[in-house]
Amino acid sequence: MIRIGIIGYGHRVACLATGQLKNAAPDMQVVGVVDPNEAGVRKRLSDWGCEDQKNVPFFKDIHELIRKSKPDGLIIGTRCNLHTPLAIQAAKYDIPLYLEKPVSISMRQAQDLEKAFCKTRCQVVVSFPLRVSPLCERVKDDIREGVVGKAEHIAALNYVPYGTCYWQEGYRNFNITQGLFLQKATHDLDYMTYLMGSPIVRVAAMATYGHVFGGKKRKGISCSTCDATVTCLESPENRRRVGLGSKKETDHPCLYSVDCGSPATGTNEDCSSCLVEFATGAHGIYTQVFFTRRDAGRRGSIVSGYKGTVSFDWYTGEIRRVRHFQPFSDTVKGSGGEGGHFSGDDELARDFFNLIRGRIKRSRTPIETGLASVYACLAAKASAETGRFVKVRQVGL
Q: Terminal CA-to-CA distance of the chain, rounded, Å?
């Protein structure tokens, strides 16, 4: 039996614990939880039919959990602002750690986290499933095999068809997320770095705020207390009419209220983009849009070199390869990949348990990847705020 301790048992971790993690290790047992909302967690476990966890003990902190339950591994899935302080506590123990992204939300947090992990043998699996997804790995193999020659440019897109969650759920709390470069682009800048084989050293970014979501509707308003549900495109009835969202949805917080914040106080961006320079001298672009819907969803990249171009999209599961100096082009259609984050969550679950079992000595997404992405995202955030190029702090320097 593999004994797991969970710190922050919210919806995301519950999905992992009952899905990818359980599939990767059927003998996994949750032996302790740290979460201030014990009643909420126990209700979730009951609703999800987690009979094997209904009597799991709760503890006040990580230290008590480890001392009394002696877990083989830890999972941190709290709100984003707590990832760093809790990971620093976990670093004191020689126990594999699964850490949700972003690993930090500020420069101070990131530097403190880096310092803590300079002094530990704790191995970390950062939740970067795109990097290890089968589609991304196949593209990386193409690049290694010389399909494009030396990778000189990357153009990455993320047109998010479910972006309303960043204004109607807890993600809209800017104090917790610090915006969508850190919340969303942290995935993409990581896999871009992986494909290009080089860290990002400089960023220029722009962002658009308050053009689509956010607004001046009163604090605490939801669809059930609003008189505009007939005309509002985001009301549950109008979403159902065009096949958006859950058919069971009957109410949600307003996407146009002051609760979403403002450009002055801090708010998520409707869309944002950045120009990035890699240490090799290559460069690329990344853009993310959060008001797209339905078939407009797209996530992937175009990687180009002198000898060829490779492009891919996770939503279609396709890779297109063009050889510039040969009369050959082809499209590869992947099979599977329907799992969490295009099957990347399955790969990370296996890595986590292989670390615990001693089958591997190092994660494919170690703490350094989480820090490198945070430093790049913080640079993008600072650039969007100042209108200037910003140098990216490098891990270990």
A: 40
DSSP-based three-state secondary structure for 374: helix
Residues 6+ apart with CB under 8 A from 3: 29, 31, 69, 70, 71, 72, 73
10 lies in the same domain as 150: no
Q: Are residues 98 and 203 in the same domain?
A: no
For residue 146, how many other CB atoms are within 10 A of its CB? 12
Do 155 and 281 share a domain, yes or no?
A: yes
DSSP per-residue letters across 43-66: HHHHHTT-GGGTT--B-SSHHHHH
Whether 59 maps to a domain, the answer reads yes
Q: Which two tokens stand for residue 256?
A: 């146009």
Angle at 34 between CA 31 and CA 36, to 5 degrees: 140
Per-residue pLDDT of the chain (397 residues; tens, 9 = 90+): 999 999 999 888 988 888 898 899 999 999 999 999 999 898 888 777 777 777 899 999 999 999 999 999 999 999 999 999 999 999 999 899 999 999 999 999 999 999 999 989 999 999 999 999 999 999 999 999 999 999 999 999 999 999 999 999 999 999 999 999 999 999 999 999 999 999 999 999 999 999 999 999 999 999 999 999 999 999 999 999 998 978 788 999 999 999 999 999 999 999 999 999 999 999 999 999 999 999 999 999 999 999 999 999 999 999 999 999 999 999 999 875 556 678 899 999 999 999 999 999 999 999 999 999 999 999 999 999 999 999 999 998 6
On whether the CB atoms of residues 106 and 169 are closer than 8 A, the answer is no
Residues 136 and 57 occupy one common structural domain: no
- What is the distance between the alpha carbons of residues 336 and 251, in angstroms, rounded to a whole number? 34
What secondary structure does DSSP assign to 130-144, as a single string? HHHSHHHHHHHHHHH
Kindly state the tokens that stand for 321: 């390869």
Q: Both 13 and 29 in a single domain?
A: yes
Coil, helix or strand at residue 365: coil
Partners of residue 132 on adjacent β-strands: none
For 275, the enclosing helix (H) or strand (E) is strand 271-278
Q: What's the alpha-carbon Rg for the chain, to the nearest Å?
A: 21
Domain of residue 199 covers 131-209+266-337+372-391
